[in-house]
Design a protein that fits this description.
Elements lengths: L1 E2 L2 E5 L10 E6 L12 E6 L2 E7 L14 H11 L3 E10 L9 E4 L1 E4 L25 H13 L4 E3 L2 E4 L8 H10 L4 E3 L2 H10 L3 E10 L12 H26 L2 E2 L23 H6 L1 H8 L1
Parallel strand pairs: 2-5, 2-6, 6-12, 7-9, 8-10, 10-11
Antiparallel strand pairs: 1-13, 3-4, 4-5, 6-11, 7-12
Bound molecules: ligand LNRAV4D5 and adenine.
Adenine binds next to strand 6, strand 11 and strand 12.
GO molecular function: S-methyl-5-thioadenosine phosphorylase activity
Organism: Pseudoprimorskyibacter insulae
InterPro entries: MTAP, Nucleoside_phosphorylase_d, Nucleoside_phosphorylase_sf
């Protein structure tokens, strides 16, 4: 049995959380560069927690320049076992209204200008992302949100776009009508794929801020409206987070869905052909399987 450590990746509007005992902002170095910011560590309601603002405090990084690999590596290096990503999203569904939260369980990845893997020449690995989020962790988020009085939706497909511009009307309609997506954002990919490679359980909570541009009564996306909705959402996000420790507990069994064993049969490169320099960089991510 291992000890639980909760990692929260806070999206737009969520740059810190309160109530951590022994809170301190820590600098973490990784072989993939610096994470988005220092990481706030401490203990929340009896369980160790690490909080990382995805865009950095003051919103420094754009969705394309967020150092996704460094962020996931830094959380893993600190001992995080369970990552909850909290993200501002547009909605493609009338019934997923601004102010509601969605526990996302699928993604369509339309990003193209980002590093998407820790692996590559000299150590090739292929993990499954058929089920890219952890159902156990998603269920805890759903319960925590409902306990906090938030309107929660169980399951949804997140369209990850490159940005930073919002979608055209034609794109918005295509994602909604032809592709059956539920929400849209710019950051959960490659974050979710990298978390799987790092053998971390990952759940994604979408905080709905707008109806993207498809909705005839709402017109185009307006970032000032998004920020207004975000201000209300951020407090709800914190309320959800404060309920997670009681639901996840201090001790942790192996993930029933195998997230923490994703690399077991994934590495294809023969031991004698592996690149020592890449193996050294993989110390935190794949140390369990490579050492
Ligand atoms: C503030 S509008 C667009 C911005 O908000 C979302 O960020 P995050 O996913 O980190 O909450 C979206 O992905 C864009 O980066
Ligand atoms: N409509 C939208 N499209 C992409 N990212 C978003 N983040 C918040 N609203 C969004």
């Amino acid at each position: 049995m291992t000890k639980t450590m909760i990692g929260i990746i806070g999206g737009s509007g969520l740059y810190e959380i309160d109530g951590l005992k022994d809170a301190q902002w820590q600098s973490v170095e990784t072989p993939w560069g610096a994470p988005s910011d220092q990481i706030l560590t401490g203990v929340l309601n009896g369980v160790p927690m690490a909080f990382l603002p995805r865009h950095g405090r003051g919103h420094v990084h754009s969705p394309s320049t967020v150092p996704y690999r460094a962020n996931i590596d830094a959380l893993k290096r600190l001992g995080v076992t369970d990552v909850i990503a909290i993200s501002a999203c547009g909605s493609f569904r009338e019934d997923m209204a601004p102010g509601d939260f969605v526990v996302v369980d699928q993604f369509i990845d339309r990003t193209f200008a980002r590093e998407k893997s820790f692996f590559g020449t000299g150590c090739v690995a292929h993990v499954s992302v058929a089920h890219p989020t952890c159902p156990r962790l998603g269920a805890a988020c759903l319960e925590a949100g409902r306990d906090a009085g938030i309107t929660m939706h169980n399951g949804g497909t997140y369209l990850a776009m490159e940005g930073p511009q919002f979608s055209t009307l034609a794109e918005s309609k295509m994602y909604r009508e032809s592709w059956g997506c539920d929400v849209i954002g710019m950051t959960n990919m490659p974050e979710a794929k990298l978390a799987r490679e790092a053998e971390l359980c990952y759940a994604s909570v979408a905080m709905i801020t707008d109806y993207d541009s498809w909705h005839p009564d709402h017109g185009e996306v307006d970032v000032t409206e998004i920020i207004k909705t975000l201000m209300g959402n951020a407090d709800k996000g914190r309320a959800l987070v404060s309920r997670l420790p009681a639901l996840l507990g201090t001790d942790r069994d192996p993930c029933p869905h195998g997230c923490d064993r994703a690399l077991e049969y994934a590495i294809l490169t023969a031991p004698d052909k592996r690149d020592p320099a890449l193996l050294a960089k993989l110390d935190a991510i794949a140390g369990r399987i490579l050492s």
